[in-house]
Design a protein that fits this description.
By secondary structure, this protein is of the alpha/beta class. Helices cover about 35% and strands about 15% of the residues. A six-stranded parallel β-sheet has the order 3-2-1-4-5-6, with helices on both faces.
């Protein structure tokens, strides 16, 4: 059965996420609901994106039993309250960057996710090229070979509170 995604926010960043989601097999991932602060905006967005359900509040999306995981694309200052809402409802959350406005907000979200036993992840862009790579001239098309080593660093382990 496909992972059923709820989309929180009908903005451009959510559109970008949906474009990426649609590159995956529909048998594995499907957007099944969208929530916006304005029901008509959510309905319009749902119609354009082929999403079956639209809600005029984030709380309705949090209560939807047919949503397995929520992508949150709201504005930065809303990450903490909206993250709290979905994590508190027991929904795994993929939250647009930054995860919080400061370390205290990030700790709070991480603690809530742990206490509820649900997944929380910040959306991350791929790392930029190193300064040394930027100074090298591009390789000619015939010279590109296999990479010998890739060492991405996608996250940081936060210390426990008080350390």
């Amino acid at each position: 059965m496909a992972t059923r995604w709820g989309i929180c926010s009908a903005g451009k960043i959510s559109h970008d996420f949906l474009v990426a989601l649609k590159t995956l097999p529909a048998t594995e991932h499907q957007a099944v609901a969208i929530a916006a602060r304005d029901l008509s905006r959510a309905q319009d967005y749902a119609r354009k994106q082929g999403i079956p359900r639209a809600y005029g509040s984030y709380e309705e999306l949090a209560r939807d039993p047919n949503v397995d995981v929520v992508y949150v694309g709201v504005i930065h200052p809303e990450h903490l309250p909206v993250g709290r809402l979905f994590l508190g409802a027991g929904k795994p959350v993929l939250l647009e960057k930054p995860l919080g406005m400061n370390a205290a907000e990030v700790r709070e979200l991480a603690q809530l996710a742990r206490s509820r036993g649900v997944f929380l992840m910040e959306v991350s862009d791929p790392p930029p090229p190193s300064p040394a790579a930027a100074q090298r001239p591009p390789a000619p098309p015939w010279a590109i070979g296999a990479r010998s080593r890739v060492a991405p660093k996608l996250g940081e382990q936060l210390p426990p509170p008080g350390e």
